[in-house]
Specification:
The structure holds two protein chains of two kinds. By secondary structure, chain A is mainly alpha-helical. Chain A folds into two domains: 10-46 and 341-561, Orthogonal Bundle (MetI-like fold); 56-282 and 304-339, Orthogonal Bundle (MetI-like fold). Chain A has 23 helices and no strands. Classes of the chains: A mainly alpha, B alpha+beta. The A-B interface holds A 1, 3-4, 6, 9, 455, 457-458, 460-468, 471, 475-476, 479-480 and B 50-52, 62-63, 65, 67, 72, 74-83, 85-87, 89, 91-93, 102-103, 106-107, 150-151, 154, 160.
Chain lengths: 561, 353
């Protein structure tokens, strides 16, 4: 019997490639960021960047504003998300499928488009709601002003609450009715069962979702750029962009991002601790029959609330965008002679910038999704099956981008790859690298869950019959996980089309994406073209999501992995 | 020459030793069972033979070639073995025929030969009519047969079975155990079989290796294992037994509370006080000595259980000493407190360590 050399084992090569790629994608940018924050532009060791970035009260105020905003958004998102999750998961409210679907729509909707729509709706003078108000009540001006702290928090929360909904619903779905029955049989009424048993069981997940919402808000760039800047509200992310005005001060940006980075790591740690107390939620057991709470007549107010949320987050904004896209001048409203299809012709055929932004968005998101699935699969397989040495370290490295807000990651990537020797600034490649790094954790988590669901014996059966690891992947793992991987692809694709914070600093004229172009067009006040572009993007993404649902099942997007 | 040789095989995870100093030799065509309670290291041993787990020390050789040893573990795909898993591990994305043909495809067997061998093997396991079905459409027993066919069609150097019957219900288990033995008699593959079920092991094995806490206690034929257990663990794990203390005097055993000396079968032991003695409940009779049994005094019935096929009596010798379990035929009805004569068949007695 002859045995081949151990160098013929592809797992060794996989390990090498993974380490190199993860180092380039994750470790290098983050370490560059750290390094830069402690050095001057000329390369000398110094704390001066911290002094100038954190020494100014304006900058500190920006950080504080972001934290206030994060708190406000989290509170609103809870009020929107928790009741909906409870209603869909545990009650007999009618229209549960519709409600779930509307939350999915709010999740798919890019938040910068939502912000544009709400500017059109609730702008202080020209906003349609305000004009309608003036029309009806004859007052001097309308009641709403989106360009305010409240307006900003409200608009962000409208597109952040699906996260709270997702986490809460997943936790509630796991709670067996038997636990609630046990409360009833001991004499607790419905309300008391709800407040003493059901909600406390889901509390760690709800708090965890709150922490994530808070962090996402602090790190958010799109909606603040559209609303906070005109409102004169200075936030951490908008402040950070000022470091990139000429002359760019990357070191100061790096130093300024350190408090946010530390806060993120700290809160993510807390979130993990909350959710890792597993015994809390997984008390479900198997056979537990699940019955819906009969909430009697309350189901109608509940349905009204769900419809109202769907109306505010999806229906109304989409309607406004469609109307604006069909208008010659959006400010004239539904007046006769205002209707036109010229915007669509412009966007799709005439205007090169918009069309190329649409093409770029789809192209980069597609490539990102493919890379994320491929890498996520490699990392997940190598670590779950302990093929490579140090699986825990590799997994940690691949998940590290979670702890880095998008804008900060962009600064790191800018520092690492914008200049020579890579000189990637302004290229599509840099955007794809940024998106891939940012969304790799999502892919790794989803792929790990998928691989954990496979019995390793299926793979061992291949090995023992003479097939190598590559045969295992080609003949068993990929065929069995096809659908799941398609789901991961669509998920990453959709999130990539919405991504703005990393793209904002890294795009050049040739690599602009829809999200970045939205900011430019908004600055120019060109809302008709903007709305048209938005409608086209939403239509395309909806198509992809529908396709994903056909392949991977109805629930693949809002599943908590 | 032995086909498969394990020499001083050890496996530890950190400080926890799972397998310690295991020596095992399988002759070509032999079916050896690794038997033991859960956590005894039997599955780890099987996975070391398959190449999924490295050995910490010692070596494993097949036909004289070392395949696991210090610094080198030949990966499973180059060992020419095949294995049947607890979950069957039938690939749900392939039909029955594709599952069975897999090993032949990997070995680049010509298509027509592959088709012929798959067809023959499916005949043998009585699945020819289900060749184009997918595994999800099969019953547990049928999936088991697919696993058997898939493992045997490649004519493995060594066939490994990891608790293959534990997911089947009792009737099917008995049938499949017989089926595995029949297939072994037909093909004579060198086979290592892992189970925790002693009845299953007795049914199908040429020899049984009893593992306890990572060590090999005894390897022997089923008959010897039952009738000549060498350790307390083997005596109590294989069937039920009474473990009592007694003295070995001149090739006979004297048990406290029982009259007379029981001759030890065959090999005589040196004299020794306070030896552990295993007495099978089936070797004890309530009533007068008949058919080669020796009378050993009188006992009182302490308690009893009626199990349909037999009576399970617990008795205490009148002269004092430990209580004994006694099997009696259903017709032998004795009330609690009843006094009866006890006799013993010396073939059911063994001194253990």
């Amino acid at each position: 019997m002859k045995f081949p050399s151990r160098w013929a084992d592809p797992s060794l090569w996989l390990f090498g490639v993974l380490i190199v790629v993860l180092t380039l994608l994750v470790a290098n940018p983050i370490l560059r960021l750290l390094w830069d924050s402690f050095h001057t532009a000329s390369g000398a060791w110094s704390l001066s960047s911290y002094a100038s970035a954190l020494g100014r009260s304006r900058n500190i105020q920006a950080l504080l504003n972001s934290i206030y905003l994060g708190g406000a958004v989290t509170a609103i998102a809870m009020v929107l998300g928790v009741p909906l999750a409870l209603a869909v998961s545990r009650t007999n409210m009618p229209g549960r499928g519709f409600t779930h679907f509307s939350v999915l729509a709010a999740f798919v909707m890019p938040n910068f488009l939502g912000a544009i729509a709400w500017i059109l709706l609730a702008g202080p003078n020209a906003g349609w709601i305000n004009r309608l108000w003036v029309e009806i009540f004859g007052t001097e001006r309308g009641p709403l002003n989106v360009f305010s702290f409240t307006g900003l928090a409200f608009v962000i929360a409208l597109y952040a609450f699906p996260l709270v909904y997702m986490f809460t619903k997943s936790a509630l779905d796991l709670i067996s009715t038997e636990l609630e029955d046990a409360a009833s049989i001991h004499g607790a009424g419905k309300l008391r069962t709800l407040t003493r048993v059901t909600l406390p069981l889901a509390l760690p997940s709800i708090l965890g979702a709150g922490i994530l919402t808070f962090l996402e808000t602090v790190a958010l760039y799109g909606t603040p750029a559209l609303i906070a800047i005109p409102a004169g509200l200075n936030l951490a992310t908008t402040q950070m962009t000022t470091f990139f005005e000429y002359p760019p001060r990357v070191e100061q940006a790096a130093a300024f991002s350190m408090p946010i980075l530390l806060l993120t790591i700290l809160l993510l740690y807390v979130q993990r601790r909350l959710l890792s107390r597993k015994g809390f939620v997984s008390v479900s057991g198997k056979g537990g029959e699940r019955r819906a709470f009969d909430i009697g007549a309350w189901k109608w107010p509940m349905l009204g609330y769900a419809t109202f949320v769907a109306f505010l987050s999806v229906a109304l904004p989409l309607a406004i965008l469609v109307l604006a896209s069909l208008s010659k001048a959006w400010g004239r409203g539904l007046a006769s002679g205002n209707l036109t299809f010229a915007n669509y012709h412009d966007v799709l055929f005439a205007q090169v910038t918009v069309r190329s932004a649409l093409v770029n968005t789809v192209l980069y998101s597609g490539i990102t999704a493919a890379l994320c699935v491929l890498m996520g699969m490699c990392v997940a397989y190598a670590t779950q099956r302990r093929i490579t040495p140090f699986p825990a370290a590799i997994q940690l490295l691949s998940l590290a981008p979670v702890a880095v807000p998008g804008l900060i990651l962009a600064i790191g990537l800018y520092a690492a790859y914008a200049g020579p020797p890579f000189a990637l600034y302004g290229t599509g490649a840099l955007i794809v690298i940024a998106f891939t790094t940012r969304f790799l954790p999502i892919a790794v988590t989803a792929c790990s869950a998928a691989i954990r669901s496979l019995n390793p014996e299926l793979e061992e059966a291949v090995r023992v019959l003479g097939g190598g690891r590559l045969t295992v992947l080609a003949k068993v793992v990929f065929p069995l996980l096809k659908k799941t991987l398609a789901g991961v692809f669509v998920l990453v694709f959709v999130i990539s089309t919405k991504e703005l914070s990393t793209a904002a600093f890294l795009t050049g004229p040739a690599s602009r994406v829809v999200s970045v172009l939205t900011l430019d067009l908004s600055e120019q006040g060109n809302y008709e073209t903007l709305a048209t572009m938005g409608v086209v993007l939403v239509a395309m993404v909806t198509l992809v999501v529908a396709l994903g649902m056909r392949i991977a099942g109805r629930d693949f997007m809002l599943r908590r992995s | 020459m032995s086909k498969l040789v394990l020499k001083n095989v050890c496996k530890s995870y950190g400080k926890v030793a799972v397998v310690e100093g295991l020596d095992l030799e399988l002759h070509k065509g032999e079916l050896v069972t690794l038997l033991g309670p859960s956590g005894c290291g039997k599955t780890t041993t099987l996975r070391m033979i398959a190449g999924f787990v490295d050995v910490s020390a010692g070596s494993i050789a097949i036909d004289g070639n070392v395949i696991s040893g210090a610094g080198r573990t030949v990966p499973p795909e180059h060992r020419g073995m095949s294995m049947i898993f607890q979950s069957y591990a039938i690939w749900p994305n392939m039909t029955v025929a594709e599952n069975v043909a897999f090993g032949l495809d990997v070995r680049r067997t010509p298509a027509d030969e592959s088709r012929r061998r798959v067809g023959e093997m499916l005949e043998i396991v009585k699945l020819a009519h289900l060749a184009q079905r997918y595994p999800a459409e099969l019953s547990g027993g049928q999936q088991q047969r697919v696993a058997l066919a898939r493992a045997m069609v490649v004519r493995p150097e060594v066939l490994l079975l990891d608790e293959p019957l534990s997911n089947l219900d009792a009737n099917l288990r008995e049938e499949m155990a017989g089926e595995i033995r029949r297939l072994h008699d037909e093909f004579k593959f060198t086979t290592v079989y892992v189970t925790h079920d002693q009845a299953e092991a007795m049914t199908i094995s040429d020899r049984i290796a009893v593992l306890n806490l990572g060590r090999l206690d005894q390897i022997d034929t089923p008959w010897n294992l039952y009738n000549k257990p060498r350790t307390q663990f083997v005596a109590s794990f294989i069937g039920r037994t009474n473990l009592v203390s007694g003295n070995v005097v001149g090739g006979h055993i004297v048990v406290h509370g029982l009259q007379g000396a029981v001759p030890l079968p065959e090999d005589s032991l040196p004299d020794r006080a306070d030896a552990r003695v295993s007495i099978r409940p089936q070797a004890l009779y309530l009533g007068a000595a008949v058919d080669g049994a020796l009378s050993i005094g009188e006992v009182d019935v302490v308690s009893r259980n009626y199990l349909g096929e037999y009576w399970d009596y617990l008795v205490r010798p009148v002269a004092g000493g430990e209580t004994l379990k006694v099997h009696a035929p259903p017709a032998k009805v004795l009330e609690i407190g009843h006094r009866a004569a006890l006799s013993i068949d010396p073939r059911g007695v063994a001194v253990v360590s």
